[in-house]
Design brief:
disordered N terminus
Length: about 140
């Protein structure tokens, strides 16, 4: 089964919790077409479903995910939001490249679709993040 993964690195949330030893807030809820937590909010495509309970196919550090409703055995589009605690001294762009390299070496038929800077709103403020789009199985 071929899947497209979209990884969003929530940089400020990672840095703040890395400095103070907290973990991700799992207080999120779905309101209309948005998933809202005290750490971040994400708009969900209209025909997609939110996943808040994860089986072994999701990384252990998954906070939430959304996937399309197309029941096609060859392709499932999805977005996983993961949490990683890192030291404040680590360069975020290096961390993002390390995460992408992990996906590159662990997924079968990995293909990078694109990488771009992606501003997001975290706790009411705009923050830099990195959007890695790739596919694999």
């Amino acid at each position: 089964m071929k899947k497209i993964f979209l990884t969003i690195l929530l940089l400020p949330a990672v840095l703040v919790t890395g400095c103070f030893g907290g973990g991700p807030n799992l207080d999120g809820k779905v309101e209309g077409n948005k998933y809202i937590s005290s750490d971040f909010a994400i708009t969900i495509p209209q025909d997609w479903e939110v996943v808040l309970e994860f089986d072994k196919t999701y990384p252990d550090n998954t906070v939430m995910a959304v996937r399309n409703h197309v029941k096609n055995s060859d392709f499932v589009a999805n977005v996983n939001v993961t949490y990683s605690e890192i030291d404040a001294e680590i360069d975020i762009s290096r961390f993002a490249k390390q995460m992408l390299e992990t996906h590159r070496t662990t997924l079968i038929n990995f293909r990078e679709v694109g990488i771009s800077d992606f501003p997001i709103i975290v706790k009411g403020s705009s923050a830099a993040s990195v959007l890695n789009v790739f596919e694999g199985r």
